[in-house]
Design brief:
Elements (H helix, E strand, L loop, with lengths): L2 E3 L10 H5 L5 E3 L4 E3 L19 E3 L9 H12 L1 E2 L10 H4 L13
């Protein structure tokens, strides 16, 4: 099983999770992070670090966001690894509680 980043991360892109990942499984896009399923070792360390609760075990991804399982795998093949915490976007806090952000996702 792997962990999956879901919609809550879009336009927030806090990188607290990156600091604790022992396998450097996170990949960075313009306004979203994903987890490479081939690198994730199911350690759960990233889950409590996400301030917007965007990370789920694959089996626990809410039904309305199941497409993020495939999206993480797809984008992980295209995006570069992120291995160090970065400053969140200036408007991240404003986007943190917003629902329905799929249209905001930049695939870069």
């Amino acid at each position: 099983m792997t962990y999956v980043v879901t919609e809550a991360c879009i336009r927030c892109k806090y990188t607290d999770c990156v600091d604790v990942c022992p396998t450097d499984a996170f990949r960075e896009g313009p306004n979203f992070l994903v987890i490479d399923p081939d690198e994730c070792i199911d350690c759960t360390l990233c889950v409590p670090e996400c301030p917007v609760e965007a990370i789920y075990a694959e089996d626990d991804v809410p039904a309305a966001q199941r497409d993020f399982v495939a999206l993480n795998a797809e984008l992980a093949m295209r995006w570069k690894p992120i291995v160090e915490r970065k400053v969140a976007p200036a408007d991240a806090d404003a986007w943190a509680g917003v629902d329905g952000k799929r249209g905001e996702l930049e695939r870069g």
